[in-house]
Prior knowledge:
Radius of gyration: 64 Å
Number of helices: 5
Largest sheet: 3 strands, antiparallel
Structural class: mainly alpha
Shape: rod-shaped
Strand order of the largest sheet: 2-1-3
Order of helices and strands: HHHEEHHE
Mean pLDDT: 83
Helix content: over 70%
Distance between the termini: 159 Å
Amino acid sequence: MRPDTKVQGGGLLFPFLIAVGCHLLGGWLLWFGWHQASIISEQRMPKIRPDAVISAVAVQQDPIEALRQKQQAEAAAKARANRERQKQKEAQRKAEARKQALIRQREKEAEQKERERQKAIAKREAERIAAEKAKREAELKRQKLQAEEARKAEEARKAEEIRKQKELREREAQLLAAQARKEALEAAEAERKRQESIDVEKQSLQSALDQEEAFLSQLEDQEQLASMQMLIKNYVEQSWSRPPTARKGMQAILTIELLPTGEVKSVNVIEASGDSAFDRSAEQAVYRAGPFRELQDLKPHQKDTFRSFNLVFKPEDIQ
Length: 319
């Protein structure tokens, strides 16, 4: 090797080392600045999913170009993060919209159910009012029929009472006339003491008076008994609940036993109507009508008549 070549090679080594040092220092400064920027960007920007990280292959390139690419990558990552946030916001908005739509649908269904419930309540109320009205009308009709029956029975009773009073007055007049005849005979007897015919006449007149008194007592008993029988019959018919099978012309004969207090001791059907429901309803009507307290107002011998008696049960209102 020539001496001048050696000297020339030694003179280039120092500048070369300086250039390499400058490049290393510039590369370190670029790396340090990029590293600090990355830390700041990570703190300011949301985390990127692992699957969104871009794999990079380290290549040897110019630091400025690397910084520019890094900034582009950061901008792209930021744009992706923004798009991800927008997607999340859109998904949240759609979910909220679906939620609100579901709430509105449920509210609508609830309103529909409430309308149906109110409609059902109104229908039931209308049916209840109609039923009560029909019940009131039926009760008014029953009361009207009952009042009409009571009126007819009262008119019949009054007519019978008038007839009996008239008959009683006629009997009383006959009794007064007989009494007058007796007094006349007694007066004549004072003048004809010795006439045997006067004694016979007196005996005959006394017998007639006794018969009249017995007849009037019997008539009074008959009147009391007939009135009591009519009263019992009216009470039984008023207490009767008509069975569905009842028909016009039906009748049953009942044997009724009463206690002296007017309470019903027993009821038996001695002649059936041919309809068991009608017969049972007649028996039940007697029990419901009792006790017959008016029986206590009768005389002892009159009460004996009602210890056991027959009653023809034939309601007049059977259609």
